[in-house]
Design the sequence.
């Protein structure tokens, strides 16, 4: 098993956080992991991304030019990384902010209205968790329970916050799962 | 302690604490600010002291003082800041004091940029400041190795009474990987330093100095230092990866580039091309003999660095014309991908077949 995932969005959308949660859950499940943020100069409101590599083998390069999956929380991120995704890969796209669907036809596209769903579960800031859930549902790469466990560790004694994020994760997860099933049936 | 996911910079800080170091003096600079940030929170928890100095020059002289008093002490900076520290480091080397310096290298010259670079190889391995001296240089390629080498750096510094430098780049510093700390040493468990200036009641005073106005004395001091650097040669460390049974192309790379080379090795295997990797872990002393031996069974040697070619000079000296030595580098914060190394290797095989 070797998977390279790029997560990207505006600064403040929480892409670094969902990358860390994925990496933590992957590590707890016994995988080798790397988490690498983009740390170059960016203007306010500019793009932000991180790369997570999960592997059953020691990881060489933590940088990738050909990720297996992309989670794009805004349009500039989709524009920048869409073409890099490997054929057969996954693109989770946040349709709340991204005004177009991916052009790629050789990947599984998972459209998810992450901001609206996050608002429905109680806080628009949880859009990142909805998108992560959609990725987990579509990829099955890391057990959702593992990510929930990381949530509980990250927010000790803040049950309301844990529940909110769990709900956001769950809503995204269902969409991801349904979408993969639909692709498989096609 | 269970495995924790840590940034390279944080792991370096925690490693220093595990090595019994309780003092950090430094001045902020990207991309290593997570080290002072971590130490500013962590050291007070263990009775240590964090000082943000007024400048890098001041920080390096605080290091000089603390090391002279017999304390384990560390600083970290990035390229332009390390240049500023060279005055203090030269004095520290002259006075034979153990300190640990971390350089998370960024592109240069001048202020350069903040992205990954290996362009301070010459500065690190050939002395750095003025005078005829060397520092022992360690180059980790994973977060775990960064932590392990920082702990070793303190032991080596004490053993040789010499500065030890750990060099990484923004990628090693900013990346998170699982890391595990095995043993923790408390400052009170560390061996005594009978040469330190700890107060001379009841004994003769110890003198810590780098000034020798008598040329005969200074010459003797220089040769003594030289002998010590020769002695340090036995500390060479390296990793040879996928080199058993020879290889088409032997890549020589350290730190970040060595990781990328490992992925290139996998990609090349699928194409029927055998790439081996020789990864120096000590950049000074340089593992010249081991490299020369490993290169015997390679067709061509490819040195790859995030510079326009610095370590390649040590590789050429080690190989001494016995094999073709080629170079591929990216600079300015640009980092090669594994595909680029495979492409270079394929080209070389075509030329040197």
Sequence:
């Amino acid at each position: 098993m070797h998977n390279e995932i790029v997560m990207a969005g505006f600064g403040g959308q929480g892409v670094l956080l969902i990358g860390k949660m994925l990496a933590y859950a992957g590590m707890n499940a016994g995988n080798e992991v790397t988490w690498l943020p983009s740390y170059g100069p960016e203007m306010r409101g500019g793009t932000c991304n991180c790369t997570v590599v999960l592997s059953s083998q020691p990881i060489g390069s933590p940088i990738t030019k050909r990720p297996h999956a992309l989670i794009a929380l805004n349009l500039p991120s989709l524009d920048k990384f869409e073409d890099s995704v490997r054929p057969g890969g996954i693109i989770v796209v946040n349709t709340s902010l991204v005004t177009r669907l991916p052009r790629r036809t050789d990947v599984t596209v998972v459209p998810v209205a992450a901001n609206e769903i996050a608002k429905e579960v109680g806080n628009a800031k949880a859009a990142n968790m909805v998108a992560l859930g959609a990725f987990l549902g579509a990829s099955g790469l890391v057990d959702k329970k593992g990510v929930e466990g990381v949530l509980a560790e990250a927010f000790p004694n803040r049950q309301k916050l844990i529940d909110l994020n769990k709900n956001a994760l769950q809503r995204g997860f269902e969409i991801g799962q349904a979408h993969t099933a639909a692709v498989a049936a096609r | 302690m269970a495995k924790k996911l840590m940034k390279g910079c944080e792991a370096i800080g925690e490693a220093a604490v595990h090595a019994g170091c309780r003092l950090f003096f430094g001045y902020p600079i990207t991309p290593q600010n997570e080290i002072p940030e971590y130490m500013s929170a962590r050291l007070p928890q263990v009775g240590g002291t964090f000082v943000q100095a007024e400048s890098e020059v001041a920080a390096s002289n605080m290091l000089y003082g603390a090391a002279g008093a017999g304390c384990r002490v560390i600083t970290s900076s990035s390229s332009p800041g390390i240049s500023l520290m060279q005055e203090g480091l030269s004095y520290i080397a002259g006075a034979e004091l153990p300190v640990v310096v971390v350089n998370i290298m960024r592109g240069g010259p001048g202020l350069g940029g903040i992205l990954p670079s290996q362009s301070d190889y010459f500065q690190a391995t050939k002395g750095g400041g003025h005078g005829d001296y060397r520092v022992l240089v360690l180059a980790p390629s994973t977060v775990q190795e960064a932590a392990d080498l920082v702990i070793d750096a303190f032991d080596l510094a004490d053993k040789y009474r010499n500065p030890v430098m750990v060099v990484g780049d923004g990628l090693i510093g900013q990346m998170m990987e699982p890391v595990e700390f095995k043993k923790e040493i408390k400052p009170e468990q560390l061996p005594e330093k009978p040469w330190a200036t700890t107060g001379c009641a009841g004994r003769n005073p110890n003198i810590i100095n780098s000034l020798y106005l008598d040329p005969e004395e200074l010459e003797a001091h220089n040769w003594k230092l030289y002998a010590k650097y020769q002695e340090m040669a036995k500390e060479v460390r390296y990793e040879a990866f996928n080199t058993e049974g020879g290889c088409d192309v032997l890549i020589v790379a350290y730190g970040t580039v060595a990781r990328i080379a490992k992925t290139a090795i996998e990609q090349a295997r699928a194409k029927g091309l055998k790439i081996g990797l020789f990864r120096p872990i000590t950049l000074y002393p340089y593992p010249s003999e081991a490299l020369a031996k490993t290169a015997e069974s390679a067709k061509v040697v490819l040195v790859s660095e995030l510079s326009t070619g610095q370590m390649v000079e040590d590789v050429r000296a080690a190989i001494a014309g016995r094999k073709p030595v080629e170079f591929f580098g990216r600079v300015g914060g640009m980092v090669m991908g594994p595909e680029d190394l495979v492409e270079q290797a394929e080209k070389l095989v075509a030329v040197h077949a």
Q: What stands out?
A: The first strand of chain A starts at residue 2 and ends at 10. The helical segments of chain A are 15-28, 75-81, 114-121, 127-139, 144-154, 159-185. The domain at 2-185 of chain A is CATH 3.40.920.10 (Pyruvate-ferredoxin Oxidoreductase; domain 3). The beta strands of chain A are 2-10, 32-37, 47-55, 69-72, 90-94, 108-112.
